[in-house]
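re the bet — no i am not wrong, look at it urself. input seq straight from the record:
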Amino acid sequence: MDRDGPVEIPINGTLDLHTFRPGDVKDIVPEYLRLCREQGILEVRIIHGKGTGTLLRTVHSILSRLSWVRRYELADQWAGSWGATIVWLEEDSG
C-alpha cells in the first residue's frame, strides 16, 4: 500500500486524526473543515486522542485561527470526551 500518495477522506462530519502523521495535521484540519462547509456540514467532530495533549493543543490552535469557525469545545463523554473536539462552522456563503 502506498502511504505517500493521496488519502481519500470521507467528508461525513468526523475526522479521525489517528491515521495521519502529526506534521500533516496543520494542512488536513482546515481543508477537511472547508470541504464540510461546502457540503453544508456545520458541526464536525475531530478525534485527536487523549495522549499527552499535544495534538489537542495543535488542533485548537488551528481552529482559533480560522475565521469561519464559530466555536469549538471538547466533546462530551459520549462523543469522545477530551479525546475529541466538536467544531461549529459558519455557513459557506460562496
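see?? The mean pLDDT is 89. told u. also The beta strands are 14-16, 43-47, 69-74, 84-89. so pay up
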